[in-house]
Amino acid sequence: MIEDVTSADFAELLAVWEDSVRATHDFITEIDIAEFKPMIIEHAFPAVTLKCVKDDHKSILGFIGVADNKVEMLFVLNKCRGQGIGRQLLTFAINKLQAIRVDVNEQNPLAVEFYKHMGFEVTSRSPVDDMGKPFPILHMSL
Fold it and tell me: Which residue among 50, 80, 112, 127 is least crowded, i.e. fewest CB within 10 A of its CB?
């Protein structure tokens, strides 16, 4: 079941983000992670509509953030990957939050394939991310 997120959940969301990034973003360094963490909790989380999936113990297994019809973040605990949580969150975002766009790190082929499988197509590519780091971004749309 998709649940709302409050600011009280931000620390747990950040832990899910870090776990997921460490498992799927091997191009991101420890320095990058340390640099991103305060920006995510202070700026990224408050700027999006956040929804999550929790287990029976109320622990967050995955979350999605949407703003202006765009998926800004979708992260699932590594131990929960492949269980349909990402699909559930993305389907909710498309159907309820009108998400039709997403930016994906080109260096994360599993995510690229996931979004393609969900109906997204690459519309353009940027050689750097929003912060100017050398992480190529694929811009995708339904």
Answer: 127
